[in-house]
């Protein structure tokens, strides 16, 4: 069986003298590893394709017993050269890739997430600079697309406009933002100021180009980091440890 699909390359490694393994993401199959036999020598089949961050149209084929996929040929769509030449931007892109890899690892429809990642990389490629918060906001957006986005306009208990609440709180275990008068239950609570609340609204409703350059104040930055970390840890079961996201 053969098929053709757009792919984003996450990592590449050698497993024999001229053969490569390629860790990649696709819209319909999530994150997986395929093999490029002769990939380190073949210029005709994979010209300029087999590097991390590349957006490639690959032709895949299943092995005779269906145990693995290998790459027949590839056509480069985008190589993101600006990212490769800017260590700061490259670091932000790599963090987004690592998070995406952890969330979408294995088979499954990841079309919405794939388009989000593709757009995030394109925004970073085109931008002169981006906010240091970009990877954190990217994680928030991924969590929102996974269904973990709390209501950010009104209190779920009384319908009060959260902007008029003196000190709304994000209730981590409940995945809700509640007004001061209706904070219920136990568990971790994170204060949510107006600035952080507005930024989360922009992220939830918008696209990476809408929030890639946002520069929150130190207080809002801390709140956003704590809220996104709470969502990712409690609801997605992931934590940043030893330079990568791991299941907890």
From TrEMBL:
SUPFAM superfamilies: ArfGap/RecO-like zinc finger, Nucleic acid-binding proteins. GO terms for cellular component: bacterial nucleoid. It comes from the Bacteria. The keyword Ligase does not apply. Transmembrane segments: none annotated. The keyword Acyltransferase does not apply. InterPro entries: ARFGAP/RecO, DNA_rep/recomb_RecO_N, NA-bd_OB-fold, RecO, RecO_C. GO terms for biological process: DNA recombination; double-strand break repair. Residues 1-77 form the DNA replication/recombination mediator RecO N-terminal domain. Keywords: DNA damage, DNA recombination, DNA repair. Involved in DNA repair and RecF pathway recombination. Belongs to the RecO family. This is DNA repair protein RecO. It comes from Desulfovibrio ferrophilus.
């Amino acid at each position: 069986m053969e098929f053709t699909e757009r792919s984003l390359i996450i990592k590449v490694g050698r497993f024999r003298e001229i053969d490569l393994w390629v860790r990649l993401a696709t819209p319909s199959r999530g994150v997986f590893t395929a093999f490029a036999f002769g990939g380190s020598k073949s210029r005709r089949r994979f010209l300029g394709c087999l590097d991390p961050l590349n957006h490639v149209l690959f032709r895949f084929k299943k092995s005779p017993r269906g145990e693995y996929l290998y790459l027949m040929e590839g056509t480069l769509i985008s190589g993101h050269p600006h990212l490769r030449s800017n260590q700061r931007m490259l670091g932000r892109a790599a963090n987004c890739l690592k998070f995406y890899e952890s969330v979408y690892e294995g088979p499954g429809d990841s079309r919405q997430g794939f388009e989000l990642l593709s757009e995030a990389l394109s925004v970073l490629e085109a931008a002169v600079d981006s906010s240091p918060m970009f990877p954190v906001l990217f994680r928030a957006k991924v969590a929102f697309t996974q269904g973990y986005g709390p209501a950010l306009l009104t209190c779920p208990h009384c319908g009060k406009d959260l902007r008029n609440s003196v000190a709304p709180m994000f209730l981590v275990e409940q995945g809700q933002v509640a007004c001061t008068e209706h904070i219920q239950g136990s568990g971790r609570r994170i204060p949510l100021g107006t600035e952080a609340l507005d930024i989360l609204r922009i992220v939830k409703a918008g696209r990476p180009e809408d929030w890639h350059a946002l520069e929150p104040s130190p207080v809002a930055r801390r709140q956003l980091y704590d809220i996104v970390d709470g969502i990712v840890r409690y609801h997605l079961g992931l934590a940043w440890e030893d330079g990568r996201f791991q299941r907890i």
